[in-house]
Amino acid sequence: MAELSLAIPKRWQPASVWLLYIAGLAPAAWTFYLGATDQLGADPVKTFELFLGIWTIRFLIATLAVSPARELFGWNYLRYRRALGLLTFHYALMHFTVYMMLDQAMDIQAVVNDVLKRPFIMFGMAGLAMLIPLAVTSNNFSIRRLGNRWIWLHRFVYIIAACGALHFALSTKILDFEQFIYVGLIIALILYRSWRPIARSRKKSPGRQRNRAVASVS
Q1: 154/163 Cα distance (integer angstroms)
Q2: 178: nearest Cα among 39, 50, 77, 67
Q3: C-alpha span between 84 and 57 (Å, rounded)
Q4: For residue range 152-185, what is the model confidence (pLDDT) as tens digits?
Q5: SS3 content of the chain, % helix, strand, coil (to 5)
Q6: pLDDT, tens digit, for every residue of 52-101?
Q7: Distance between CA 122 and CA 200 in Å, rounded?
């Protein structure tokens, strides 16, 4: 069977990253326009807030899927992972901003009461708080400066994913089909990340055993 090739020519790759940023922010810009022109239905604030939250989840899943796609299918899109991660942060930040400014009108007491009434909001806020250092350090200078600490820091994305899944799943009493799909994908990606070190360890074990056997014979 012929292997599916999704490679982008090298000379187009830098431009394609910027195209991804533009395409990724286009849904938010278009929906903001619909809201500004009174085309988002009876409750435009809630509709816009929900829309931004769903796109946060979509970009989070896309970010987490980059490594499995390379390891399982040979699709190397590591170049786009930073852009996908930053788009996740921007949508999460816009989702929070709409909630604070338009939904709660910057009324801290109302926010506290809402959190006490709907605890799932805390998972979303925790996820956003943990996204901030990841977004700030998503640059080459931070990678060089932090070294191995950068890798350790960015593993927090899986805890953020768990917070996002809980926030998304608990935001409604009954999950619809789309929510099942997104939450299921996040769980699958977290489980894959947990299983990967075990798989690598098993791959190394036969080699180690052979080396020990050769050493004992010699």
Answers
A1: 15
A2: 50
A3: 11
A4: 999 999 999 999 999 999 988 777 888 899 999 9
A5: 80, 0, 20
A6: 999 999 999 999 999 999 999 988 889 999 999 999 999 999 999 999 99
A7: 35
The dihedral region occupied by 106, where left means phi > 0, alpha psi between -120 and 50, and beta the remainder, is: left
Residue carrying structure tokens 């020990």: 212
Residues 6+ apart with CB under 8 A from 118: 171
User: Are 94 and 55 contacting, i.e. CB atoms less than 8 angstroms apart?
Assistant: no
Residue 198 pLDDT exceeds 60 = yes
Distance CA 119, CA 171 (A): 9
Evaluate whether 89 touches 60 at the Cβ level (below 8 Å): no
pTM: 0.85
- In angstroms, the Cα distances linking 122 to 70, 100, 129, 134, 140 are 33, 13, 10, 19, 31
For the stretch 95-154, pLDDT in tens is 999 999 999 999 999 999 998 889 899 999 999 999 999 999 999 999 999 999 999 999
Q: Per the structure block, which two tokens stand in for 33? A: 């326009």
Nearest to 160, CA basis, from 211, 92, 97: 92
- 44/36 Cα distance (integer angstroms): 9
Q: How many CA atoms, within 13 angstroms, populate the side-chain half-sphere of residue 2? A: 3
CA of residue 215 relative to chain centroid, distance: 46
127/133 Cα distance (integer angstroms):
11
